[in-house]
Design goal:
The structure holds 4 protein chains of 4 kinds.
Chain B lengths: L1 H21 L2 H29 L2 E4 L10 E4 L1 H24 L10 H17 L3 H20 L4 H32 L4 H10 L7 H15 L8 H7 L2 H30 L2 H24 L3 H16 L2 H5 L4 H36 L16 H14 L5 H15 L4 H25 L13 H17 L3 H8 L9
Chain C lengths: L1 H28 L7 H12 L4 H9 L1 H20 L16 H24 L7 H17 L11 H23 L12 H25 L16
Helix pairs in contact in C: 2-3, 3-4, 4-7, 4-8, 5-6, 6-8, 7-8
Chain D lengths: L2 H22 L5 H27 L4 E8 L2 E7 L1 H24 L6 H20 L3 H19 L5 H32 L18 H19 L7 H4 L5 H9 L2 H17 L1 H6 L2 H21 L4 H21 L3 H32 L10 H4 L1 H15 L5 H15 L3 H26 L20 H19 L7 H13 L2
Classes of the chains: A mainly alpha, B mainly alpha, C mainly alpha, D mainly alpha.
Chain lengths: 116, 488, 233, 498
């Protein structure tokens, strides 16, 4: 049990917590934070597991750097989308508004066809 | 020559992404046409080169794996590169006429489109587990961007749901990659396979493979993780839906398939293979049923994708623990299914877009009587539907035939029922649309004929999907060319 | 009750997942990786043109990853500005008139610029590099923005788009020029490896900062929306 | 690429290309459409005629290439395929002429004729298919191309009929595919070959082969309208008359019957099928279908529905003929493929004429129609007598040969079936004839149209007259070379290998 393995185990714990949050939380920003939590967990596992023998391995560190940038890009995109979504619908979750989900919008119905 | 072709293949989409970012929609359209021509030619050239000389490894930056990233340019990869070039060019061409140049946000369509194309090529050729992750993210983000482009709340909801699913899937995959790297110390898929087969290494763990497959299955929308797909594919603009259904979901499946074929023999098991097969079967049945129940035309097509994706996952049981010959048969069947579904579904979405444009409504009922206007797009839709139903002589049928043979030969007869029932169920939702178009209703007097080129594009794709069944043999023979490992 | 049950099941699933992961990590930790990648890396560090192994991996051995990664970042930037309000950069919610912030900003911004420059420079032999430098640069931009300094170049326009794509374009050009010379894509010519990497790093820093800043600035959302196909909007 | 390769391809292409061109034509191009239609049909007759001549003189026509690994696409002209191809080429021309007249002034003609040609192309493909795989390919294509024809009118009834048709046929197709795939898995890609493959098969395969046979009969029986898979056929009557004519005489039901012939003769082999005891079961089903169809026909008041149930019954003569397992029986079955086609198409043309000219759909409205439309009624009468089996018409040849065949192999009960069926035929046709000729018209025609001097449009009148003449000739000149009967004898001599 080396210190770096401890990182890996911490990463495992983060993954578990993050997954719980991701599946459980409804608010989109919280969901996004849970996603970042899982991401951090994965990065920790990646770095920690690779250096279990003490010597540093630069490859996973570089990978994690790349991974972080990708995660930031994804997070940023998600935030932009969520903001705009909130701006247009006033909602912070993905739940469909009740009125709409019941029936398709009336104005799109040009004609009632024969029932199937 | 192949070096130049490879450089062109990697460079063009990325460069055109930048170029089109600099100009507005109309200019971007012109620039894109040029780029599509280049890209199609380069893909064809590469395909021809591999078809005649066999595959090779392409060392990016001149560094060999495991230090560098190797691209695996084999028959299967170039077939998919060519498929991507054809389908993406068709969708791009369609989009260039279909999208309204007046909307300021449509200028961003082109860069996202090109990034998507670049990501797809990266995935088809990728031989490095981590690089595949980056390629997947490139695809996902570009795809989400395209779905959300200028959209209203519904489109954004679909896009966010799609993004969340895609991100979770990518992380699961990445976690698997981390574990694989931890165990083997290399990221090259070929390297890991070699280590595993050589027996030097301790036997690998199943869990990383399961994690990766789970993540990729989520991104491929395998039942029951398909919830994100229909809203996203249904609400995006038709050319975008076509790209997403035809190519994007295939990218993650392609990685899953490669992982399975390389590592599944060692790390997988009968139960895992059967479980995936069962999920695929449920996807076929449930997806078809939901497609049948939809009231909106594009939702029908989107749910049909869920069902058709189910077929792909029959690869897993049909290649595990069977002889080489049966496995090859199953692989060929799945490859054909991927190609024919890509062509047919792209045709279907583009045709659906045209039809919606023509009748001014996105409901299936609204199609009542349109067949009297002889819309070209309805024919395209119909032909594509024939392929989805798996009726001869389409590529879908050839695929189904090979899968039937593989299931029979491997003694897994239960997939036969799934394959046959799936064909009938898809007939149910396809014929529902046909049926609507034949209703003679008196009040259908307005029909707007879209421009010829909009109508021709889905027709070409549908005919290709139809003709694929007739030329399946030569196509498949390129795919299974011997891979000449080693240097360039 | 069912809500509680749902949480319990979910928690159980997550625990099982974490447990399985834990066991796998533990088992893998007990083995020896058959490939010695760090050793291989050390052997080839000389040829990579930079002294710091992480930078070598990022910008030479696995430069394709980095190229695509910047692509991902640019996509996010594009998606961001595609939703920005083209007419106005002013978002009253974001503007603060805090005098402390204003004072801090006068001190911090120059300092952060210097820091960014240092991080960029350090990347070749110590921890640091383009991304870190870009992030600091972006942070200083955010600070200025919060302080109400108008940054006209961030208006969605050709300048912003140029800035977004600059780093990526230069990287791509370098990649393809080396391929034109008959070598593989992204293979730097031996003599120019170091300067090329330096150039790439510099422009990347700039573009990364630009993307991050653009995402922050594109906060005012345009109200225009496109109706779904087939619905009159 | 020699001519022998190209001939079958050309024969297929004439109608395939015609259909593509017809789709592309604008709706208003009536004249051009008619010209293309007729030109293609005549060209096809010529091509098929050349091939028939060639086959009779021992030439071989074959085009083949590998489609999917392990499976070939084979188009081949042999004596059996020429029997079917000749029938469909001939009747395509006549039906096209009829359809041009029938659909005058109705909408969606471009669509109609496009799918009509496609349907004929599928039929031609079925005739020329050289192996089961190719057969299946065109068999399914036929399903798809007939659907738009069945629902052509777009009424609720037509759509319901179309839905049932598609449910029946696609399910049947799936069963057939399953059987073909299984057989392929067991023994590989099988071309149709004289005498079949299983004359000395490993007994351990008997079980699977029996199941496969049953599955194939189910799959093919749906189209051949064997009881209990006949449900779609009477409903499909809502289609326009030329479509019904084609469906009943050539395209769909015959495709099923022809498939049964191919499987029994050239995959299993008549002897092997008999040895495995497969034919006994099939003959019982066929006999039941004959009796059942005729009985149901008695109770129909709608003219086209009565004809439809008559088809259910008559097509099974073909199947029953095969099961007789002797040269005469087989000849009877084969010749009925052609005879039934000519007779039934005559009857449907006439029924269409009554509907189109007088607006008459029900049998009790036909009183006195013989005076108003003598030409049509003569044709109808000949067709009805042919069906009953009155000498010297075509139907008599069939029944006589089959009866002789049954006695030859000692299946006397088949003679009883034939007699009962003929009595039933008489029972449901003679009342119609009575009404036509001897009853007085008491009510005005429901919806009468007039065409100058003729009783109806010339486009509508000539086809039934021609087919009626052909039917008479087929009976009178049964022993002339190239008559259906002599051709059937040639097939038996060459390919059935009894």
């Amino acid at each position: 049990m080396t210190p770096s393995l401890l990182y890996a185990f911490a990463g495992v714990a983060l993954c578990g917590i993050g997954l719980f949050g991701f599946l459980r939380l409804q608010h989109l920003l919280r969901k996004l934070m849970a996603f970042n939590l899982i991401g951090s967990g994965v990065f920790l596992v990646m770095v920690g597991l690779a250096q279990r023998n003490g010597q540093p391995d630069p490859v996973p560190q570089a990978l994690v750097l790349t991974g972080i940038v990708v995660a930031i890009a994804a997070t940023a995109l998600a935030v932009v989308l969520i903001r705009r979504y909130y701006h247009l619908s006033g909602q912070t979750t993905l739940a469909e508004p009740a009125a709409k989900s019941a029936r398709p919008k009336a104005r799109s119905v040009n004609r009632e066809g024969a029932p199937e | 020559m192949t070096l130049w072709l490879m450089a062109g293949l990697l460079f063009t989409p990325l460069a055109w992404a930048v170029l089109t970012l600099m100009v507005d929609f109309r200019k971007g359209r012109l620039v894109t046409w040029l780029g599509m021509a280049v890209q199609v030619l380069v893909s064809l050239g590469l395909w021809a080169a591999v078809a005649s000389d066999g595959g090779f490894l392409y060392l990016l930056g001149g560094w060999q794996a495991p230090l560098g990233i190797e691209l695996r340019v084999d028959g299967l990869a170039v077939t998919f590169v060519l498929l991507t070039a054809l389908v993406a060019a068709a969708c791009g061409w369609h989009a260039s006429i279909y999208l309204d140049p007046g909307k300021p946000w449509h200028r961003y369509f082109w860069p996202l489109f090109w990034f998507l194309w670049a990501g797809l090529n990266a995935v088809w050729l990728g031989g490095d587990l981590f690089n595949l992750y980056v390629g997947l993210e490139l695809i996902s983000l570009a795809a989400v961007g395209l779905v959300a482009l200028g959209g209203q709340a519904d489109a954004l909801r679909a896009a966010i749901r799609y993004l969340m699913a895609a991100l979770l899937g990518s992380l699961a995959y990445l976690l698997g990659v981390a574990l694989i790297y931890g165990q083997f110390g290399t990221l090259s898929l070929a390297g890991v396979t070699e280590l595993m087969n050589s027996g030097d290494a301790q036997s690998g763990q199943t869990f990383p493979l399961v994690l990766m497959l789970l993540g990729l299955a989520l991104k491929t929308a395998l039942f029951p993780m398909h919830g994100w797909l229909p809203p996203a594919h249904g609400i995006a603009k038709s050319p975008v839906s076509a790209l997403l259904s035809a190519l994007v979901v295939k990218a993650s499946f392609y990685i899953a398939a490669r992982l399975w074929l390389d590592l599944g023999g060692e790390l997988g098991g009968f139960a895992l293979a059967q479980l995936i097969g069962v999920l695929g079967s449920l996807a076929i049945i449930w997806g078809s049923w939901l497609a049948f129940r939809q009231t909106k035309l594009k939702q029908v097509v989107a749910y049909s994708s869920v069902a058709q994706i189910g077929y792909l996952f029959l690869l897993f049981p049909l290649t595990w623990g069977v002889t080489e010959a049966i496995s090859l048969q199953a692989q060929q069947g799945i490859t054909l299914q991927v190609i024919s579904h890509a062509l047919a579904k792209a045709a279907m979405f583009l045709a659906a877009g045209n039809l919606i444009m023509s009748v001014g409504s996105n409901r299936v009922d609204a199609l009542a009587g349109v067949s009297r206007f002889l819309p070209f797009s309805l024919f395209s839709f119909g032909l594509a539907g024939v392929s989805l139903m798996g009726l001869p002589p389409t590529g879908g049928f050839a695929a189904k035939w090979l899968l039937l043979q593989a299931s029979l030969a491997s003694g897994q007869w239960w997939w036969l029922a799934v394959l046959l029932a799936g064909g009938l169920l898809s007939a149910a939702y396809v014929f529902r649309v046909y049926r609507a178009s034949f209703i003679e209703s008196t009040d259908t007097d307005q029909f707007y004929h879209p421009s010829r080129s909009l109508e021709v594009i889905p027709m070409i794709l549908a005919l290709m999907s139809l003709g694929l069944g007739l030329v399946a043999e030569p196509v498949l023979s390129v795919m299974s060319l011997p891979f000449e490992g080693g240097g360039q | 009750m069912s809500r509680f049950l749902g949480i319990t099941v979910l928690a159980a699933v997550c625990l099982v997942f974490a447990g399985a992961l834990m066991i796998t990590v533990w088992q893998i930790a007990g083995t020896q990786a058959p490939v010695d990648l760090p050793g291989l890396l050390a052997d080839n560090l000389e040829a990579s043109g930079v002294e710091h192994p992480i930078t070598a991996v990022l910008l030479n051995f696995r430069s394709y990853d980095t190229l695509l990664e910047i692509g991902v970042l640019v996509i996010a930037g594009i998606a961001g500005i595609s939703m920005a309000n083209t007419a106005s950069l002013e978002d009253p919610e974001l503007r603060t008139s805090d005098s402390l912030l204003y004072a801090l900003q006068r001190w911090f911004v120059p300092l952060m610029l210097v820091l960014a420059g240092y991080l960029l420079w350090a990347g070749s032999d110590r921890p640091g590099g383009a991304f870190q430098a870009g992030a600091v640069l972006a942070a200083s931009g955010v600070m200025m923005r919060l302080g109400g300094i108008p940054m006209e170049f961030l208006r969605p326009g050709v300048l912003l788009r140029l800035g977004l794509a600059l780093g990526f374009s230069v990287f791509l050009l370098v990649a393809v020029v080396s391929a034109m010379a008959g070598d593989a894509f992204l293979a730097y010519p031996d003599a120019f490896t170091k300067p090329l990497i330096l150039i790439i790093e510099t422009v990347l820093t700039f573009s990364i900062a630009m993307v991050l800043l653009a995402l922050f600035v594109s906060a005012p959302v345009n109200g225009a929306e496109e109706p779904e196909e087939g619905e009159s909007g | 690429m020699t001519l022998s390769v190209l001939m079958p391809v050309f024969a297929l292409m004439t109608s395939l290309l015609a259909s593509v061109i017809l789709f592309a034509l604008p709706e208003k191009g009536y004249r051009l459409r008619t010209i293309i239609n007729l030109a293609a049909a005549i060209l096809k007759i010529a091509l098929v005629g050349v091939m028939i001549w060639g086959v009779a003189h021992g030439r071989e026509y074959e085009a083949a290439f590998t489609m999917v690994p392990g499976v070939e696409f084979v188009l081949r002209a042999d004596a059996l395929s020429m029997l079917f191809a000749g029938l469909s080429a001939l009747l395509w021309l006549l039906t096209t002429i009829y359809a041009v007249g029938y659909l005058e002034d109705s909408p969606n003609r471009s669509r109609f004729f496009g799918f009509f040609s496609l349907c004929v192309a599928s039929t031609m493909g079925i005739a020329l298919a050289g192996n089961l795989f190719t057969f299946f390919l065109f068999y399914e294509m036929l399903t798809l191309s007939t659907y738009p024809l069945v629902v052509h009118r777009g009424t609720t009834k037509a759509l319901r009929a179309g839905r049932n048709y598609i449910i029946y046929t696609l399910t049947g197709g799936a069963v057939l595919l399953f059987a073909i795939a299984w057989l392929h898995g067991l023994v590989g890609d099988l071309r149709f070959q004289e005498g079949g493959y299983f004359s000395d098969v490993d007994p351990s395969l008997n079980g699977p082969l029996t199941i496969i046979f049953v599955l194939m009969m189910v799959g093919l029986g749906v189209k051949a309208a064997l009881v209990p898979f006949h449900g779609w056929l009477p409903q499909a009557m809502v289609a326009p008359a030329p479509v019904s004519a084609l469906l009943h005489a050539v395209a769909v039901v015959k495709a099923g019957a022809f498939g049964i012939i191919r499987v029994v003769f050239e995959i299993y082999g008549l002897e092997a099928a008999e040895a495995m005891g497969l034919l006994a079961g099939l003959s019982v089903v066929a006999a039941l279908t004959i009796i059942y169809g005729s009985t149901r026909a008695l109770y129909q008041v709608d003219l086209k529905r009565r004809l439809a149930f008559s088809t259910v019954s008559q097509v099974s003569y073909i199947v029953l003929g095969l099961c007789l397992f002797g040269p005469l029986g087989v000849i009877g079955g084969l010749v009925h493929l052609v005879h039934q086609g000519i007779m039934k198409i005559t009857l449907f043309f006439c029924a269409g004429n009554y509907a189109e000219t007088l607006g008459v759909h029900r049998i009790d409205e036909l009183d006195g129609a013989g005076k108003r439309m003598p030409g049509t009624s003569v044709a109808f009468t000949l067709g009805a007598f042919g069906m009953i089996g009155a000498p010297p018409l075509a139907g008599f040849i069939t029944k006589w040969t089959m009866g002789a065949g049954a006695l030859e192999v000692g299946m006397d009960w088949v003679v009883a079936v034939l007699v009962i069926s003929s009595l039933l035929n008489a029972a449901y046709f003679l009342p119609i004839l009575h009404r036509l000729w001897f009853a007085e018209q008491c009510e005005p025609w429901p919806h009468e149209r007039r065409w100058g001097r003729l009783e109806t449009s010339a486009w509508l009148l000539w086809p039934p007259l021609i087919t009626a003449t052909l039917m008479v000739l087929a009976g009178l000149l049964a022993n002339v070379p190239f008559s259906p009967l002599s051709w059937a004898e040639l097939i038996v001599l060459r390919e059935v290998a009894l």
